[in-house]
Amino acid sequence: MSARDRLTTAGFRWGWRLARTVPEEVAVRLSVRTADALVARGGPRVDQLRRNLARARPEAGPAELGTLVRDGFRSYARYWLDAFRLPSWSVERTVGPVRFTHGEELRTALGSGRGAVAFLGHLGNWDHAAAWSARALHPVVTVAERLRPEQVYEEFLAFRRGLGMEVLPLGDPATFPTLLRRLREGAFVPLLADRDLSSTGVEVDFLGERVRMARGPAALALATGAPLFPMTVFHEVRDGARVLVVETRPRVPVPDRGPGETVREHRRRAVAVMTQACADEIAAAVRAHPDEWHVLQPLFPADLPPGPRS
């Protein structure tokens, strides 16, 4: 392991330990100060978040956009704080402050043993949502991007498995067949899909531009017959308390096969249409909750480095 990797691993371990031992109110204040310091220092991630948020709120002037960037970093820091503290939370602390909305159709699908797929964006705290699901809805089977260094990735796997998730590695040839099997066994498969990490994604309209999003959710639903639901996760304050909202949008219909359309052509078109429907729901959620959209990486073509993109 390189010196840089050792430093990164030590930093994550220190953060994990500190976040769990410091009183929550102190840790929250520290996370806010850290976020504000990062924004004040600036840098590529601050600039990228500003560009991304400008697409979500094109009418925002410089002052409003600056506030959104500050609030976005505060939200992102709070995501990491809560993620670090999640393993020490009681069942009541995990489930109590969650409001599940419009989930009747999803509950029915999971209760029937059919399985279900959810298309999520990088909104709110998806780790908390998965931990809540494992205790109050259905155990989660999902996919995670490989982090570097490897030791940090392995510790994140252990962390998420400890919350009740089955986590499969992105890019492993066995991952898609395993997801197919799990769905046919009745699994719940929520996938973060608003960023195409495989370079084989579907091009969709999103916040006024063309971007690529992961094809996996729609492809899994088509291959298994499991319903596909867009799902958004965000926070709201009710009676002075912070609540995690897990909102399920209506099931995405499968387009009918057209006259003369081959099975392959229909599948390709259906994946594109269904992914666009999910992208529309994620875009609406991002516009409504831009400060909770945790995408600090280039997403839109104008921000991506030059080079061939399939």
Summarize the structure.
The protein is an alpha/beta fold and 310 residues long. It has a single domain (3-300), classed as Glycerol-3-phosphate (1)-acyltransferase (3-Layer(aba) Sandwich), CATH 3.40.1130. The protein has helices at residues 3-21, 24-41, 44-56, 62-85, 91-95, 104-111, 126-136, 150-162, 175-184, 216-224, 263-288, and strands at 98-101, 116-120, 140-144, 165-169, 188-192, 202-206, 209-213, 228-238, 241-248.
Structure description:
The chain has 310 residues and is an alpha/beta fold. The chain has a single domain (3-300), classed as Glycerol-3-phosphate (1)-acyltransferase, CATH 3.40.1130. Helix content is 50%, strand content 17%. It contains 11 helices and 9 strands. The protein has helices spanning 3-21, 24-41, 44-56, 62-85, 91-95, 104-111, 126-136, 150-162, 175-184, 216-224, 263-288, and strands at residues 98-101, 116-120, 140-144, 165-169, 188-192, 202-206, 209-213, 228-238, 241-248. The strands form 3 sheets. Strands 1-9-8-2-5 form a 5-stranded mixed sheet, with helices on both faces. Helix 1 packs across helix 4 (62-85). The mean pLDDT is 91.
Question: Which terms summarize this structure?
Answer:
two-stranded parallel ribbon, Glycerol-3-phosphate (1)-acyltransferase, alpha/beta, five-stranded mixed sheet, 310 residues, globular
